[in-house]
Structure formats: structure tokens, C-alpha cells
Amino acid sequence: MMGSQVSHKTRNLIIAVLPILAGLICLGIGRYSVSIQETIRILFSGITGYEPDPTAYTVIFNVRLPRILLAVLVGAGLSCSGAAFQGLFSNPLATPDTLGVASGASFGAVLGLLMHGNLVTVQLLALLFGVISCFITYSISRRNGKSSIVMIVLAGMVISAIFEALVSLMKYVADPEEELPTITYWLMGSLSAASFAALRLGAPAILLSCVVLLLLRWKLNLLPLSDDEARTFGTNIHRLRGLCIVCCAAMTASCVAMCGQVVWVGLLVPHVCRMIFGSSHARLLPAAISCGAVFMMVVDTLARTISAAEIPVSILTAIIGAPIFITIVRKKGGWSL
After folding, report:
1. How many Cβ atoms from other residues are within 10 Å of residue 178's Cβ?
2. Separation CA 77–CA 89 (nearest Å)
3. Which residues of 90-111 are buried (b: 16+ CB within 10 A; e: fewer)?
4. Is 278 helix (H, G, I), strand (E, B) or coil?
5. What is the pLDDT tens value at each position of the chain, 337 positions in all?
């Protein structure tokens, strides 16, 4: 019993400390290198009265800190959403775009780019169409006043295909010299436009949704059960599924709105965490949030440092994620929840 408690406490400590340590390391990595000690001094300079080098202060606070915070939010949001969706649909291949939210948000963002709107306009349109796609999916799935998981998945596939076609149409009519390169680069995912203004708009939905799912993480294990089985545990399964879908859709739309489409994170991270921490959402969700944040920080740091020109993060997440996922599948001999 004592060994189990120690193990549990150690695991929780690692989950809590790992993103902080990774963030401190990633803040100092780049063309202008800053040591961990100096990074800590700069971060707390307003409290301690330490006077840092102006260039280092600008690099840490104005350039890298917004990107690190955005990477944390996107990685945590997509991983949490992926873990919840895989449990909700009892499908290990479920991703944050299962309901077509990412495709809808991408269409909204592309529309904003074609309108030559500023970053706030692009984010608002992405959020709006992400919510609209989720609402349409849910409306289509309802039959006789009820909706089944199968119908929700099928409706999500249809809505996703429609919005992807609309994105292709927007790319077709875009100016090939000015608008098309901007749209194409944005769709590949990038954290280069990170700013505190963008974080203020997108962070609340991600943080609130993560908190709600964390508070419900013990009940999320009931999601695959039938209505009658869930009722024996005193749980309104329809309300729980609806709340889970709303939270996951909000997180996905916010992530896409801030940095474009980032693939593989919501699929890969929950699988790795499930292998290490087990399938219980009580342990899985906190682990997925922590590991997702670390994974995105590392990938974004690689994206901005391994070459002179910044590499879109979705390229790296696919290059890194696909081999790891294949290794997991071969090791487990298949997929399981």
C-alpha cells in the first residue's frame, strides 16, 4: 500500500513538474541562447528587482514566452480532447476533428484571411465556424429527438468533408501570389503568430474546458456504457456526453483558431499516455494534458531552431508522430482502449 501511494505521488509530481521544466529549457533555446538560470532570473525580474540584459528580456518575454504558452495550451487542449473523444466513441482512432470542428474552424480562418482581416478577425471567424460545424453535426445526428454515437460520428465525417471542400474552394479562388501562400502556410500549422492578445482570446475556452473535463474525469469512464448501465451509477449519460462534446469542440476550435491545424497530437499523445498510465480517465486526462503540453513545446522549439526558415509544426508532428504510432501498434499487436 505504501509503495502504491509513493508511486502515485511520484507520478503526480512528474506530471506537474515536467511541463514547467520543459518550458524553462525551451525558453532558452534558439539563435539567441539563454541559460536556465538566466531565464529564471528574467522571468522573476519584476519581483526580485534583477536588471537583465535588454535583448535577453525582449527575446524571453516578447518572442518566446507567448509561443511557449501557446504550445502548452494547444498541446494540452488537443491531447485532452483526443483522450476524451477516444473514450466517448470507444474508438482508438478518434481525434479532435471527429465532429468536423477542426475543418469548420479552418474554413472560418481561411475566410478571414481572404477578407484580409487581422489576427483577431481570423480567430473569431475560426471559433464561430468551429461552433457552427459542431452544431450542424449534432443537429444532423438527431433522430426522433435522440442522437446515437454512430450517427454523431457519421455526421461529423460528412460535415468535415464539406468544410474541407469549402477550404479547397477558397484556395482555388485565392490570389495565387499573395493570398494562397498565406492560406497554405496557415493550414500547415504554425505558432509564429503567437501573442498575448491572441492568447487572451483563445486561452479561456481551452482552460475552462480542460478544468471541466478534469473535474469529471472519474465519470468519463462511464461514457462507453449504455443508458441503462450508466443509470445504475446515478449518471445522466446524455448530459455527460453532451458536456464532453461541447468541451472538446471548444478546445479544438480555439486551438485551430490560434495556430491552424496541428495533426497527430490528439491521436498520438493519448495512446502513449494510455500505455504508461492506464485507461482510467482519472489518470489518463492529467497525463495527456501534461504530455501534450511538453510534446508541443518540444516540437515548436524544433520547428523554429533546426533550420533557417521555420518549419510548420504539422510537418514535424507527422514526421515524429507516425513512426511512434506504428511502433505502438506493432508492440501492442493492434488497437485497444
Report:
1. 9
2. 18
3. ebbebbbbbbbbbbbbbbbbbb
4. coil
5. 434 444 677 888 889 899 999 999 999 999 899 999 999 999 998 888 888 899 999 999 999 999 999 999 999 999 999 999 888 887 777 787 888 889 999 999 999 989 887 878 888 898 889 889 988 988 888 776 666 777 888 888 899 999 999 999 999 999 988 889 888 888 888 898 888 988 988 899 999 999 999 999 988 888 777 677 767 777 788 888 889 988 998 899 899 889 988 988 998 999 889 888 888 999 999 999 999 999 999 999 999 999 888 899 999 999 988 888 888 777 765 545 5
Which amino acid, 151? M
Q: How far is CA 158 from CA 140, 151, 161, 260, in A?
A: 10, 11, 5, 21
Give every CB contact of residue 261 below 8 A, 6+ residues apart in sequence: 102, 106, 187, 188, 189, 314
The one-letter amino acid at 256: V
Predicted TM-score (pTM) of the model is: 0.90
Alpha-carbon distances of 242 from 80, 182, 202, 226, 230, rounded to whole Å: 16, 36, 21, 15, 14
Could you write out the DSSP letters of every residue in 169-215?
A: HHHHHS-TTTHHHHHHHHHT---TT--HHHHHHHHHHHHHHHHHHHH
The DSSP H or E segment spanning 272 is: helix 265-277
Q: How far apart are CA 13 and CA 267, in angstroms?
A: 25
The H-or-E segment that residue 289 falls in is helix 281-305
What is the phi/psi pair of residue 143, to 5°? -145, 125
